[in-house]
């Protein structure tokens, strides 16, 4: 059936029919699902000094501001890259079955979100490449797209800016050292922007319950007192959960894989007088505990996040930002002797400490032109070890640092925007232990110069073209080099994890895109974007064994991705918003040395991803938001002889909301998340599986 049915064509056709049918309200504001609409800028706003630009804008006008492009507030018309904006109001219109931040941008074009479970990370793809080729930012500082996506609470965010296309000059790689490896913004970057502008008090309280005996609660409060503004929140969820492994599976879940997850966070901002002169600090802590379906497979994961930001206008046209952060990851879990027996074998642990910092100076000149210059740094430690019978064995102990300087000029002239930038980066790794032994080579360092360029032509107020090109560089991570197992553990029962590879080479890449945006009227926005990405010496994770579950990172030769995105969104009326998008991708590996990899598909990248969504306001305060996603075939390995195929399936999620009471100061509402309505038990890599239909009910009070 999957060989003949083309659901992505049906989704795109349905979107086209929506665009052409019905009488549309010409007065509907521009935007779409996940967007907060507002009027166009008047000409005097574009001439404001950079320090007062944001302060002068109304909340509606802020809807057209982008900060990811230059780390400073800019009009969308002056940005060469395609940037998609998802506002906090849209978070409540979508479901998040796995409680992962990646699910908030699941329906954006160009990416495939593939979260393995509520206890595991997203192993999807971006721009036809694997999960490590798109970085995540928290208020301009890098964070981990695997672990922080499982940790941070979305109620702290104002919006998400999804910048498509390469961003390797303004933003550095992230020294994750774990999971799929270090992370590069070659295919784009996803920017989670914290709430900054607080105009008054607001309190939110939510209680939830649903499938798998899931229960949870959240509380949030914000206010402003003189020069101080603040927000604070906390949440807790616990669940018996369910079997999320295939049958048979190395996961071998024998009982409910129970978990508890608690979060607490807060942000304080102090205004130092003049506009945009402020100091802020954001703190977030998550404790995630439970067991994964067997009596001696418990875990305890602790995540700590800090962002410290200082900004001030130096002169009318010059603005300074200084930022520093801390990301702490401490993951503990137990292993048993499965399949021999279920007795406890050892306790494993991974500790990471990452300190990012960034200083950026922006100079507004020649009207809207902007020069950005700055420096950034990261300092990371990565330690993995196990404790068997009271004896601790170190697997990996590594340190890494990245030091970079960058310069970018964006020239705005008439209808043209021209952008060019360069970065010099030094990355160094220090290995004390790799794969359980002292390495012969304990230090490696790489110096690389990167470049980027882009242009945009605003032909008319409703029609524009854009194009971008950039280079990138990515060093192998400590986990990729050292693994979590010994070389002699290949195929050994009970030895689940990653095998070492000390001969990995760094990656070098180039990415480019071309596209156009059209706003023909009736609050309709159409977009077309083509992209091409190439990575030399691409590092991919190959599945070496399914039972036991073992992988190894390898250089797979040259990876390339060629793709096309088509998207449409429309505000039909104040009670009807819809969107539709389709991403077609052809990605492959070329390796003349290893014929088993030559011509293979890039792991985790489906041939197509199609989305269709609708938010419909019904009588009596009821709102329904169904979203359908269809995705094509993808593979878990670059080895043609041993890879497994996945995909060619569809997932339908529905969010229903109802207003129960509303006054000038209070609002009471309820919502129902219906996930995987078609009850598709979809297979995923490493013998994971979507468990099928589940539901969660929320009741929400705000005042």
In summary, what is this structure?
The chain is mainly beta. Helix content is 4%, strand content 54%.
Describe the structure.
By secondary structure, the protein is mostly beta strands. It has one domain: TonB-dependent receptor, beta-barrel domain (Maltoporin, Chain A, Beta Barrel). It is 4% helix and 54% strand. It contains five helices and 38 strands. The chain has a 22-stranded antiparallel beta barrel. It has a five-stranded mixed sheet with strand order 3-8-9-6-7. The chain has a three-stranded mixed sheet with strand order 23-27-26. The longest helix is centred in the first third of the chain and has 14 residues. It is globular and about 65 Å long. It starts with 6 loop residues before the first helix and ends with a strand. The N terminus is likely disordered.
Architecture blueprint of SSEs:
Layout lengths: L6 H14 L32 H4 L8 E2 L7 E2 L6 E6 H4 L19 E2 L12 E2 L8 E4 L2 E3 L4 H4 L5 E8 L23 E7 L7 E9 L3 E12 L2 E12 L19 E13 L6 E14 L6 E18 L2 E19 L7 E22 L3 E20 L2 E23 L2 E18 L9 E18 L2 E12 L3 H5 L14 E3 L7 E15 L2 E13 L2 E7 L4 E6 L2 E16 L2 E15 L17 E11 L3 E10 L2 E2 L9 E2 L2 E14 L4 E9 L7 E2 L3 E2 L4 E9 L1
Parallel strand pairs: 6-9, 23-27
Antiparallel strand pairs: 1-2, 3-8, 4-5, 6-7, 8-9, 10-11, 10-38, 11-12, 12-13, 13-14, 14-15, 15-16, 16-17, 17-18, 18-19, 19-20, 20-21, 21-22, 22-24, 24-25, 25-28, 26-27, 28-29, 29-30, 30-31, 31-34, 32-33, 34-35, 35-38, 36-37
């Amino acid at each position: 059936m999957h060989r003949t049915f083309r659901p992505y064509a049906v989704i795109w056709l349905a979107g086209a029919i929506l665009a052409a049918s019905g009488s549309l309200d010409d007065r509907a504001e521009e935007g779409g699902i996940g967007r907060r609409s507002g009027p166009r800028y008047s000409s005097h706003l574009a001439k404001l000094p950079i320090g007062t630009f944001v302060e002068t804008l109304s909340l509606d006008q802020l809807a057209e501001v982008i900060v990811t492009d230059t780390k400073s507030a800019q009009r969308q018309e002056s940005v060469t890259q395609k940037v998609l904006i998802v506002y906090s109001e849209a978070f409540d219109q979508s479901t998040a079955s796995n409680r992962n931040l990646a699910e908030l941008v699941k329906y954006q074009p160009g990416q495939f979100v593939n979260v393995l479970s509520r206890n595991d990370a997203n192993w999807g793809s971006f721009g036809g490449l694997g999960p490590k080729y798109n970085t995540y930012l928290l208020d301009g500082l890098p964070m981990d797209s695997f672990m922080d996506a499982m940790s941070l609470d979305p109620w702290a965010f104002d919006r998400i800016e999804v910048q498509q296309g390469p961003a390797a000059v303004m933003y550095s790689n992230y020294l994750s050292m774990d999971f799929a490896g270090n992370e590069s913004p070659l295919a784009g970057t996803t920017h989670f922007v914290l709430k900054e502008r607080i105009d008054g008090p607001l309190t939110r309280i939510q209680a939830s319950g649903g499938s798998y005996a899931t229960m949870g609660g959240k509380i949030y409060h914000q206010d402003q007192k003189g020069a101080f503004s603040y927000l604070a929140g906390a949440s807790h969820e616990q669940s018996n959960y369910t079997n999320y492994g295939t049958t048979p599976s190395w996961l071998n879940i024998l009982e409910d894989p129970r978990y508890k997850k608690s979060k607490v966070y807060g942000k304080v901002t102090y205004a130092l007088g003049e506009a945009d002169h402020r100091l802020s600090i954001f703190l977030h802590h998550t404790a995630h505990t439970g067991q994964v379906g067997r009596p001696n497979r418990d875990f305890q994961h602790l995540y700590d996040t800090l962002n410290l930001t200082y900004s001030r206008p130096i002169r009318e046209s010059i603005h300074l930002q200084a930022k520093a952060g801390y990301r702490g990851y401490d993951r503990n879990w137990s292993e048993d002797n499965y399949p021999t027996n279920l007795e406890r074998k050892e306790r494993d642990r991974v500790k990471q400490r990452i300190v990012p910092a960034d200083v950026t100076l922006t100079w507004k000149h020649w009207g809207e032109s902007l020069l950005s210059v700055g420096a950034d740094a990261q300092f990371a430690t990565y330690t993995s070890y196990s404790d068997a019978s009271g004896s601790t064995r170190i697997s990996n102990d590594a340190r890494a640092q990245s030091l970079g300087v960058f310069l970018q000029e964006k020239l705005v002239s008439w209808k043209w925007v021209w952008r060019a930038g360069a970065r010099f980066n030094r990355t160094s790794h220090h290995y004390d232990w790799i794969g359980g032994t002292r390495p012969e080579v304990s230090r490696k360092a790489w110096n690389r110069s990167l470049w980027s360029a882009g242009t945009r032509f605003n032909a008319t107020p409703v029609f524009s073209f854009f194009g971008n090109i950039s280079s990138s560089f990515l060093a192998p991570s400590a986990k990729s080099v050292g693994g979590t197992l010994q070389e002699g553990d290949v195929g050994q029962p009970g030895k689940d994890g990653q095998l070492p590879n000390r001969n990995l080479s760094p990656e070098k890449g180039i990415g480019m895109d071309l596209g156009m945006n059209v706003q023909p009227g009736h609050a309709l926005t159409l977009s077309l974007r083509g992209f091409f990405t190439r990575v030399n010496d691409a590092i991919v994770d190959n599945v070496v064994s399914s039972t036991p579950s073992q992988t190894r990172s390898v250089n797979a030769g040259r990876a390339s991705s060629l793709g096309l995105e088509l998207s449409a969104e429309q505000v039909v009326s104040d009670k009807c918003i819809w969107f539709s998008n389709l991403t077609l991708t052809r990605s492959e590996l070329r390796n003349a040395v290893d014929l088993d990899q030559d011509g293979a598909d890039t792991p985790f990248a489906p041939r197509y991803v199609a989305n269709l969504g609708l938010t419909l306001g019904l009588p009596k305060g009821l709102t329904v938001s169904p979203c359908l996603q269809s995705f094509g075939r993808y593979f878990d390995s670059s080895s043609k002889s041993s890879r497994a195929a996945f995909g060619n399936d569809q997932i339908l999620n529905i969010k229903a909301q109802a207003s129960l009471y509303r006054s000038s100061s209070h609002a009471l509402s309820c919502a129902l998340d219906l996930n995987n309505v078609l009850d598709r038990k979809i297979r995923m890599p490493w013998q994971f599986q979507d468990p099928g239909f589940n539901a969660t009910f929320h009741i929400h009070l705000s005042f």
